[in-house]
Amino acid sequence: MNLKTFPAKPLTADIVLIGAGIMSATLGILLKELDPGLTIAVYERLDAVAAESSDAWNNAGTGHSAFCELNYTPQRPDGSIDISKADKIAEQFELSKQLWASLVQGGQLPDPEAFIHSIPHMSFVWGAENVEYLRKRHAALLGSPLFAGMEFSDDPAQIEKWIPLVMDGRDRSQPVAATRMAIGTDVNFGALTRALFTQLSQQPGVTFELGQEIEDFRHKADGLWRVKVRSRATGKSRKVRTRFVFIGAGGGSLTLLEKSGIPEASGFGGFPVSGQWLKCTRPDVIARHNAKVYGKAAVGSPPMSVPHLDTRQINGRRELLFGPYAGFSTKFLKKGSYADLFRSIELGNIRPLLYAGARNIPLTKYLIGQVLQTPEQRIAALREYYPEARPEDWQLEVAGQRVQVIKKDKKAGGVLEFGTEVVTAADGSIAALLGASPGASTAVSIMLDLVQRCFPEQAASPEWQATFHRLVPSFGQPLAANAALTAAVRAHSAEVLKLA
């Protein structure tokens, strides 16, 4: 789309961003760097920034690099390990670190210790079959420069040095194994999002409004969008005129996308999954664990339910969480309505919803079982990772709400996806981000792709290309095929972001 044509009537803004989460913040910063003259209006329905999925308590805080997440390295029928998705995700997070480092150097982001910290990423398994899987996974990943330096051990004594809580009280006759990447990270995406929006809101031509509900969209013959915005405080509505709309409202994106009326939105549905954490309340226990330890998900469970015993840095405090415990709610947002799921059902997505539902009955049963778990059952799950856990040292915390994407499929009728999906209009004038994990960690990669898709002429220009490479030095170059480039950009990001 062309951002330089002049409409007959004044615009409210060149760009409208819906939702004050990490996705909108990343896109806003990128566009302002690419074209400082752009005007941007941001609208958020809540009275705070990053209050839903981007909030530190509502997500895992893992800088997802596929270092420890076993669901990104499936085993093929012949027993070999497929690392293609792991390579992709690891590369995407390197792009994120490069942009953050550039913004820190440029003064647009604060001291990186406010939002990112080094923490080893580990996988831990038990049982002979799982140990053999982890051994093969480790060997396969070492073939990629993105996983150079990954350690493997099936020695209980070594694993105890790495993660003593996990080994305390464990039967030493049980086969166990672990991998460790020392360069893993913990990211407070809430703090990062707030810092990005602070920077964005201080730039000329940017307006930022909280407590604003998006009621409707109209795409007019002049190519502009009229967005109907209602103040939740006063109830008054107004129409906003813009050339481009980005819907980055987390779980709320689906229903807003449906209101846009674009043909590309037809057939998409949503499957909401809720979550809970166990939070440790004993400082001495918290102090003894220093890693993000991921295990294998239960059969039939969604990827967001992969269990992990997780050291976090949240609002200046060290925390220890275990979970998440999945559940089902018809809400699409943590602070949403129980009617969200039903409101999202339209004629165009009934068939995909029914087919996907029929094919995922075990998942539904799993989620219901999670909802019905007793406190004793939750502690039993924790003890698989921390055998000496005491119930009185842990309290239950509600995590965020995720909406997994359901999309139409010619063969299957409808399929349930566990990633992210960017939906754009044919003319590139509106785009929406649907889905969940790995989400925030790959925001930079997703937004770079979106900018090139929606603004192809500008993105191909020498000016924008130069800015892409200034902000993200490895832009356009596959890291998995270039060990020297991977080492160089990783070392630079680590130095600027103060990572070990």
How does this model look, in words?
With 500 residues, the chain is α+β, with helices and mostly antiparallel strands. The chain contains 16 helices and 20 strands. The strands form three sheets. Strands 4, 5, 6, 12, 13, 14, 15, 16, 17 and 18 form a ten-stranded mixed sheet that branches. Strands 1, 2, 8, 9, 10, 11, 19 and 20 form an eight-stranded mixed sheet that branches. Helix 1 (22-34) packs across helix 13 (443-454) and helix 2 crosses helix 16 (483-496). It starts with 12 loop residues before the first strand and ends with a helix. 50% of the residues are buried.
Structural class call reads alpha+beta
**First CA to last CA: what distance?**
42 Å
Can you tell me the residue ranges where pLDDT is under 50 for at least 5 consecutive residues?
A: none
Number of helices: 16
User: Into which percentage range does the β-strand content fall?
Assistant: 15-25%
User: What shape does the CA trace take?
Assistant: globular
